[in-house]
Amino acid sequence: MKIAMVGSGYVGLVSGACFADFGHQVVCIDKDQAKIDRLHAGVMPIYEPGLAALVKSNVRAGRLAFTTSLAEGIRGAEAIFIAVGTPSRRGDGHADLSFVYAVAEEIGTHLANDAVIVTKSTVPVGTGDEVERIIGERAPAHRFAVVSNPEFLREGAAIGDFKRPDRIVIGAEDDFGRQVMREVYRPLFLNEAPILFTGRRSSELIKYAANAFLATKITFINEMADLCEKVGANVQDVSRGIGLDGRIGKHFLHAGPGYGGSCFPKDTLALLKTAEDAGSPVRIVEAVVTVNESRKRAMGRKVIDALGGAEAARGKKVALLGLTFKPNTDDMRDSPAIAVAQTLTDAGVEVAAYDPEGMELARPLMPQVTMCMDAYAAIAGADAVVIVTEWDAFRALDLDRVKTLANAPVLVDLRNIYRPAEMAAKGFTYTSIGRP
């Protein structure tokens, strides 16, 4: 089957490469000539473990190609995926659908055969109806269907998630759309991946509801961590205790500095606006968004407290270890590290930082922060070391070396990757999240 993937960003490139690895003929399309040139040269526009090798092998096998021409890329394609960005719109927080609709117009203009148009981008309820209208006005001579197929890829584990999904959601309104999508995902039938067929609007809402629920779990355990600190409980014990309940589950119950990334912040906002427009507000999600935003700066204040308070902190140096919103990605979007660093610099604290993959993207977002070549270079002369992102490289720091390099043995662990008793035995003044 020939598949066209319009948009060669995170979702489009990973999906396109995986479909090609299944044996489909895939063309990834992007307007950014420089990005396509880099892909032709084997240079990935994002960091994702295993992606470069996957792309290279499928290009070599002749199953994966890249182009800037949508007309050329969709020619003969039986399934055309829309995988462009839907960032939060400035001013009101709605999902910006301008890229999705522009692609729909171009598909309608150049469609030369029967095809299923698949919305892979995360879009509000009803977007598929508008995409169908736009294409129908421009391509009345050809049979087409518009299908919703949301992605559930975790950055840092996207290839595994695509090839071994816990579910595939397909929102289709007719048999033509369903039949083509069955063929698209036929290689996964051997893995017995559960495929859920729904109506298109239900599929669109499933993505937002899933992300909002996960964001709620994160925010809930973070508030429990704050309560644990007040009453002398241990949030990790609380998390294990409630996670063993099968109705709750253990995932997304790790206390930390708040959620960030490309999905949760914008998708919770978009869901709020969709619900507001529908006259059915979602108060729980409203609270989640508010609490999460305030938490990020609160983590900066936690560091200031570890330095002895606002007056004592001024003029001191802090080392931030980890800048991306999570490990195994270079994604800096809405990373808690941005707010933590800003809170510290606002308080007159000098900030040095190191991240294994994210510093290039972090520099323009954090111009006041000194980027260092490794963790120990950032730690040198620091009055406190702060772990913001739980990269594996930070899980086994040479603590004796840290004490030698730093001005003071102060460590603030916003991911709870070290044990309080062991840190005390090493002579550190240690602060973590929700633990006595």
Summarize the model shown.
By secondary structure, the protein is an alpha/beta fold. The protein has 18 helices and 14 strands.
Q: Can you give a write-up of this model?
A:
- This protein is an alpha/beta fold and 436 residues long.
- It has three domains: 197 residues, Rossmann fold (3-Layer(aba) Sandwich), CATH 3.40.50; 82 residues, N-(1-d-carboxylethyl)-l-norvaline Dehydrogenase, domain 2 (Orthogonal Bundle); 137 residues, NAD(P)-binding Rossmann-like Domain (Rossmann fold, 3-Layer(aba) Sandwich).
- Helix content is 44%, strand content 14%.
- The strands form three sheets. It has a six-stranded parallel β-sheet, sandwiched between helices. Strands 11-10-9-12-13-14 form a six-stranded parallel β-sheet.
- Helix 1 crosses helix 3.
- The longest helix has 32 residues.
Supply the key terms.
436 residues, alpha/beta, Rossmann fold, N-(1-d-carboxylethyl)-l-norvaline Dehydrogenase, domain 2, six-stranded parallel β-sheet, 18 helices, 14 strands, 44% helix, 14% strand
End-to-end span in angstroms? 58 Å
Number of extended strands: 14
The helix-and-strand class reads alpha/beta
* Helix content class: 40-55%
The CATH topology of the largest domain corresponds to Rossmann fold
What share of the residues does DSSP label as strand, in percent? 5-15%
Could you give the order of strands across the largest sheet? Answer: 3-2-1-4-5-6
CATH superfamily of the largest domain: NAD(P)-binding Rossmann-like Domain
Average pLDDT confidence is 96
Query: Can you tell me the overall shape?
Result: elongated
The figure for the number of domains is 3
Figure out the total of helices.
18
CATH architecture of the largest domain, by name, is: 3-Layer(aba) Sandwich
